[in-house]
Amino acid sequence: MKAVQLVAHGRPGQFRFIELPDPNPAADEVVVAVRACGLNHLDLWLEENGLPLQPELPRIPGCEISGEVIQLGSDVDEWRIGDRVAVQSNLFCGRCEFCMAGEESICLHGELLGVERDGGFAERVVVPARSLVRLPEPVSCEASAALTLAASTAMHMLTRRTEVRSGHWVLVIRGASGVGTAAIQIARQRGAYVIATGSTDRKRELALSLGAQAALDSTSADWTAQVRHLTSKRGVDFVIEHVGGKLIEQCFQCLARNGTIVTCGATAGREVLLNLWPFFVKQQSLIGSYGRNRVDMLTTLSWAADGRLKPVIDRVVPLSETRAGFELLRSRSVSGKIVVKP
Ligand SMILES: [Zn+2]
Question: How far is the CA of 256 from the centre of ligand 1 (A)?
Fold first, then answer.
């Protein structure tokens, strides 16, 4: 099979586009022919060695996989050759206390697909059968590869870790990102008012086209004041963010009493300064959200199937141009997802 391997970390890292032997499944695994695989910030972290783990190289990155089952391990009886599937990239054991409670993403023995084992920037990938989710017929593999990771991460944030409801004010940071585009749509479907941020006209127009009531220029010095102005000085009930660093302090400036910041990433910094006095006086919350569970993926894909959630794809690139996709994502010049198609 053809595959893209990361052979040395860096910014950019060193990749090779090579021919590898076809993989074989263990008893509880399946081989999936990859039809599409979304590119994510996780891939950049792997490339730059920015993760708090030491993955072995060479490694095939790629975690947002959709495709077709083409080979079954000897113990697999719940799937058939030809089934269209998406893959839960937070690989989980299925036996620990958190898995038993359906909280797969915080499995005690979790493993990241495309980081700790080979992922989807290849023609084939081997995954545990329990990590598969059935792809509904109307959802294309490209749409799935643009939604199953980022949008189900947003689904997890807005419907499981918190519960955004009708009438709430929701601030979506980086509204043109994978998580952002989905968070805007999910919040609007639930009847909330949405303010998004974006660093360019194109990104702000995208946020507005997805239903945001307002889209603010995140490069302007007073965007947090604009949030307070739009909410009649009250502030927002929820902030959905994945940037971290200094931005968290700005998010608190936008937050109403009883408000909640939900964070699922730290692309701009992992250490933040938190002033506890306004935090407890205003009864605010800061909630972590990690990945997604299969139930979030199923909800996301069923919303996609009935048109409530639309994938936002910036471009589809062939497997041979995966490396250029990494550069594009790093440059932050994309609106929506980059999808690799083997
Ligand atoms: Zn587990």
Answer: 36
